[in-house]
Amino acid sequence: MVEFTWMTGGKQGSGIDVALGLFSRVxxxxxxxxxxxxxxxxxxxxxHSFFTVRVSDKKIASIPSKxxxxxxxxxxxxxxxxxxxGEAVHDGHIRDIKEGGVLIVDSKLDKNKIxxxxxxxxxxxxxxxxxxxxxxxxxxxxxxxxxxxIICVAASCYLIGLDEAATVEAIREEFAKxxxxxxxxxxxxxxxxxDYLKKRSETIAKETLNHVKSKGIxxxxxxxxxxxxxQLYMEGFASTAIGKAIAGCKMQIYYPITxxxxxxxxxxxxxxxxxxxxxxxxxxxxxxxxxGAAIAGxxxxxxxxxxxxxxMSETVTWAGMNEVPIVLVDHQRGAPATGQPTxxxxxxxxxxxxxxxxxxxxxxxxxGDIEESIKMTAEAFNYAEVYQLPVxxxxxxAISQGSMNIDKKTITNIKDSYKINRGKLVExxxxxxxxxxxxxxxxxxxxxxxxxxxxxWLTGDExxxxxxxxxxxxxxxxxxxxxxxxxxxxxxxxxxxxxxxLTGNPEEADLLLVTWGGPVTAAREAISxxxxxxxxxxxxxxxxxxxxxxxxxxxxxxxxxxxxxxxLKQHIASVTGFVIPNEILKYxxxxxxxxxxxxxxxxxxxxxxxxxxxxx
Length: 616
Hints:
CATH class of the largest domain: Alpha Beta
GO biological process, one term: organic acid metabolic process
CATH superfamily of the largest domain: Pyruvate-ferredoxin oxidoreductase, PFOR, domain III
Protein name: Pyruvate flavodoxin/ferredoxin oxidoreductase domain protein
Keywords: Oxidoreductase, Pyruvate
GO molecular function, one term: oxidoreductase activity, acting on the aldehyde or oxo group of donors
Pfam family, one: POR
Largest sheet: 8 strands, mixed
């Protein structure tokens, strides 16, 4: 079995993203599964940013707290950094390297400052490599220094025993749309890095390199069965975009906000998806346009994050009042207010369930990984149109900023099995059409504007079956019950796998762990080898009735969430009356790691009621 975790980092704007993509593509070309995650400060350029990539011969979608190898663009990534007031901006990544691991640093760094005797430390002269390449290509060093990311990837791949040709091929693939001069420069830097290391292994540092290869990191070999031809490298924000394309979404209206903007930029850069992207002047305009497009017949959507979702609240209630099928994807981030724009959290569950003033029907979904994000985002459009209400998909930075390999067949299978269901959308009606007609299932026929037999009114006021403003108390009761009376139909229609996933037997397990969204992948791996059952709730609202029965059967129950108030726990208690007694919470803005969840599970089983995770 192969398990290897790699980290790289430096200042934002120095090519960290490229390093992640290159290293991941090299590993995929050797047949391995990868999962990567990005951490970065909320500024455009200059602050610290880093990536962690896990490599395995088994399917993975989470990362551990410690890495096997780390290589950094700058010394601040190693030792940490302070601001002008002397306060720590970050503590550096020395602590993140496992015992027996490898740290590769710039030769300018004094290795005595590192203070780790239990790891292998190898220094590389970045300046020498850059100067040599610049001289050979007749360029200034300032033109080559940007390729430090290539040095990091090439050095790492060489030290773990990979053929340098794989790195070169990954460069060609990553920069296929770049000018030839850029590709040639990066290939030259990669080759120069390998030559530099080969020379060192023959002269001054042979013993160090041998230790890296034999003691620190086991050489990674190409797997016999390499599925690379069917594997795609996918970043999380692309999953919701692809889900929208599969669903036949025609309008994506958004206002820039971290971390949601990446999804809209991806759609805009892929016109083959067939989705028109519009960026108006504000979040208020965004949802007004989204709602208008849906009324006109387009499958329409927006993507935002917590602050944007807050600003959209009034129009969400208008869509709820008029039973307009819209889909919103909320890529959650640290809150409240501006909060932590570039960190992950799950602060919006209760807000999404109760968003806006008044009571009206809505559906809240929470995918747990990239594959589920594709499928559940696509299904959201069917739910919106069948039940004629707003649907909110609760994503989060933990998913949207993750990256992994996914089989093309997986996407093809989702696409082939997906059937567009527009519900009671009709083309023709007889005269006397009632847009909000009272029906047994509380869902009326819907027709697009422009039909001479179907004149109807849409208003934010309470209305009658035609849409006329009405203050009649009996009509008010009927309309309130109509808009809020769709939940039993929804819960009855949806299959179990659309509502929740139960792994293991709660009655026999020492613990039933309940979770949702981003922590799901870490939880799946954390329970391996333990007598623990896992309940992943996908349909947050309306809450599946089966949840209460499952909870009551368990010996011990704990909730796992990325917020301080255990919002899913609160929601479950308000609906079922069952109060989950144990909590595993993380709210420092950082990704939930599978090993810290495994440790927390053991602590809860032993009797701790509340465990707060603080892994970086």
